[in-house]
Structure formats: C-alpha cells, structure tokens
C-alpha cells in the first residue's frame, strides 16, 4: 500500500488518503483501513496515545450508490479505550484511492 496523505485535520475529524489493492471499497476491518487508522492515531499520539488495536469492528452501513461505508469499532490506545465511528469513501476508484475519516 502506498500512502499519499496520512491525515488532514478538519474540525474534530481526521482524514486519510490511500491507494488500496483489491476489488472494491475496503471493508471496515481490512488491513488497509486498520493501517490508515494506525497512522492517523500515531500521528496524534501526544493527544491520543499510541495505537494498540481495534476491537469489535462492525459495518454500520454501506451505501453502494454513494460508494460510502460507515463503520464502528472500539479503539484501544496506550491512553484510553473508546468507541469510534469512521467512514470509507472512494476518491477515485480507477486509481483505487479512498478517504478514511474518523468521526
């Protein structure tokens, strides 16, 4: 996986842009999604602590026409454990580029 942009702060949201290998929008528990979440959290480790793991990853919704997947998980860091929601959306499907936003 080649990482183009690790994160962009927008309000309280974090965004990542990545190229993924495979056929279709990455699943909530995919390696690509977890790698981006790890990068995003570790870039903000002074606030959030280091990424440890994601537990109980679930797909909350998938809108095929909007090409948007909504997910929930329990985020474990060295400082805390909390429930998070995140979205995965195509930026350019032909180039296999997608956004991952932690809400």
UniProtKB/TrEMBL annotation:
Name of this chain's protein: Lipoprotein
Species per Swiss-Prot/TrEMBL record: Vitreoscilla massiliensis
